[in-house]
Amino acid sequence: MLDDYTKSQVINIFGISISLIALGIAVYEQFRxxxxxxxxxxxxxxxxxLYFIISYPIAKLKQKFNQIDKHNYLIFEIKKDLNKIKDNxxxxxxxxxxxxxxxxxxxxxxxxxxxFIIDPRWILIGIxxxxxxxxxxxxxxx
Length: 142
Known about the structure:
The chain contains 3 helices and no strands. It is mostly helical. The longest helix has 77 residues, at 34-110.
């Protein structure tokens, strides 16, 4: 299939060919019948000029619309690439946050060296309070 530029060129060549043939016939007919030939010649000349006046803006508009479509496609592709980059940056940021938390926990655990997080004295105090409550209940105070 032909692309738009080639189609436009074919239409222009065809229009020029038909115009030249029509002007040639008009000039030839002018020699046979001058009055009809002049009307025919000017009529064809006006329509040829009108054809080129209309043809040029249409070709330019088609070219601009094709350029806009191409740019829209490029913008769409750039948006897709930017979204991929944004997703990668989010993943890198999450990784950096995780690494920062991990290093914070490692720094906190450096000084612990196998110690209990809960002080065993609190456990003993809890057991003593529980035994005291059980003793007082057995004596009837609760």
